[in-house]
Amino acid sequence: MIVAGFGFRSGVTLAALQDALARAGGSGEVTHLATLAAKAKGLAPLAEVLGLPVVALSDAALTGQATLTRSDRVQAMFGTGSVAEAAALAAAGQGARLRGPRAVSADGTATAAIAEGLG
């Protein structure tokens, strides 16, 4: 399983999500998209274009995930350093690893990270 995890601001555009995914090294091999359950609706346009399922995660699923980048604000809100990285790891399952740190869209409204699961 190869998961693209996302963090984004409300009102994010499809173009910004696509840009973040491209900057993270997303390609045709991604099998799932993931984000917080409260934001899953915002990821639906990208999922539709790519024909991929969205994994909607609870806040608790992100807590404690070890990430490569760290935002103090995200740490205080979710107990992890990056929503995108933590979402990718949580959705990819136990033993998953990040391919690299999160990438930010050119307009700054979306972040994406890729994780590989064992299964």
Account of the 3D structure:
The chain has helices at residues 14-23, 40-50, 59-62, 72-78, 83-92, and strands at residues 2-8, 32-36, 54-57, 97-98, 103-104, 110-116. It is an alpha/beta fold. It has one domain: Nucleotidyltransferase, domain 5, CATH 3.30.420.180. Strands 1, 2, 3, 4, 5 and 6 form a 6-stranded mixed β-sheet that branches. Strand 2 (32-36), helix 2 and strand 3 form a beta-alpha-beta unit.
Provide keyphrases for this structure.
119 residues; alpha/beta; Nucleotidyltransferase, domain 5; 6-stranded mixed beta sheet; 6 strands; 23% strand; globular
Instruction: Specify Rg, calculated over alpha carbons.
Output: 12 Å
Instruction: Indicate the CATH topology.
Output: Nucleotidyltransferase, domain 5
Superfamily at the CATH H level? CobE/GbiG C-terminal domain
The tally of beta strands, per DSSP, is 6
Q: Can you tell me the overall shape?
A: globular
What integer is the average pLDDT? 94
Give the class-level CATH name: Alpha Beta
Please give the largest β-sheet.
6 strands, mixed
What is the CATH architecture descriptor? 2-Layer Sandwich
Unreliably modeled segments: none
**Helix vs. strand class:** alpha/beta
How many individual helices? 5
